[in-house]
What does this fold into?
Amino acid sequence: MERLSLAIQDSWVEAERHLRIIPRNIELLLFAAVQPVMFVVLFVYVFGGSIEVAGFDNYDQYLLPGIFSQSLVFGSTFTGVGLAEDLSKGLVDRLRSLPMSRSAVLVGRTVSDLVRNLFTFFVMLGVAFLIGFRFEGSLFEALLATLLLLLFSYALSWMQAIIGLSVRSVEAANSAGFIWMFPMTFVSSAFIDPATLPRPLEAIAKANPFTVVTDAARALYNGNPVGNNAVYSLGWSVGIIVVFAGLSIRKFNRSTVA
Amino acid sequence: MSIDLAVDARGLVKCFGDTVALDGVDLQVPRGAIYGLLGPNGAGKTTAVRVLTTLLRPDRGQALIDGVDVVANPHGVRQRIGLTGQYAAVEERLTGRENMQFVGRLFHLPKAEVKSRAGDLLERFELVDAADRVVKGYSGGMRRRLDIAMSLIGRPSVLFLDEPTTGLDPRSRLAMWGLIEELEADGTTVLLTTQYLDEADRLAERIIVIDHGGVIAEGTADELKDQIGGDRLRVSIARVENREAALDTLRPLCTGDVEVSADGLSFAAPIHSGDRVVPSVIRALDDAGIDVLDVEVRRPTLDDVFLTLTGRAVADEQEGEVA
It folds into this structure.
């Protein structure tokens, strides 16, 4: 019990380090805000006119939950980049030499990235509302949809943590963290109906956890029946957290400057 | 095993694949002393520090910090140490004070103590004016001072300084030396690694010379210098026809062969360290009617020591440090 309370306390100290920095790094903050806005505007106005999805009168209502989902998942890359930076600067060595909880550095980092992602989400949501997006279901459903999306991006942060601790440089963490995000988010239901894809891709898109999460959020935002997707997406997120948190904490405890 | 030892490591072995970084290192540092771990890049200094600070697990051997085993109770060791690595491990976008408080809180010190200790250390390390500025604008010397101040906030019994002045300009280096000397006055045990011989010579009470993962010599700077045969006397004379007379005069005063330069005007020979040879040399040469231009006694540098022990100069090796 005492160990747990120390772990929480230390995680908070570490999260606070990152949260204090966010408002001081204007460039990063601007980037975190501009990128999702750009995605919203690009997709809605570039593809919006030429894509139709069966069952949706208005493509925006289909597309925007997909963009929310994608942007939040992209936001998880901050975790790997930040850890790679701490590692290369020797900060990880310092932290590992302190009598602090072994998991706190990673928990603090992922939690602060979740807060940053929440900020990104609200910026996107504001822009989405400006261009006509509406919650068609209840506020509770919208809240649930948002929580599912944030939880999934939090889970991916733990995968990014392993990447950040495994590569040799910040640049590599950035590339390695981003590269698989593109197939994952495009071969999915985020922008199109997977039924329109060639067979093998359709199978991949449907099995993609990102599709499961996006479908769940989309159904909830639009007040449609969500089916099993809410439970499946919860399952995926929790499963990823359990496996990758264990692996990355193990990895962290062996990491030192090259 | 003595409880008077702040650091007690025996037979440490650490391999990375086929590379043997530590090959049976023994290290004993008594409480309150400043010891220097001296060696070229790649000798194993940093690996030794990483094992002693729980960052790396040794493959074999045992290490106790303040009597606490680094493998069996790493958490206990972490409560007793401060580590300043080769990189100034500070958070650039926080202020100096925030950095101090960050580490203080991770030591679980009471809030009021974190605040007062952070303030005291910032003052002592001459960072008060910069304390509330973001570290990004600090100079290299300021970062390094902040780094050490952060390592001291938990009142460590042993402070590890891994190459504390590497990359600093000469003035910051001197200032850093002054600060490290003050630590000794506080009774903090310090183990510092360095590849600078003058640094070990000036700061360390005893020096442990390490090369290829093993300890090759240990002693005070003077002991190490005596190992290679005391001081060296150099004499220059004005006229070559005095060559034989000078040789005859110098021989009985020296401890070994007298070397003569090709032009017959300069002589070099080993003498006992600390002997007051110079006045006798000058008097004897004067009595023999020889015109003396110059007499000097040179203490051997640790460079000479290292060269004698390993057959290489310290600065020769440019390969990177093994993890």
Remarks:
- The radius of gyration of chain B is 24 Å.
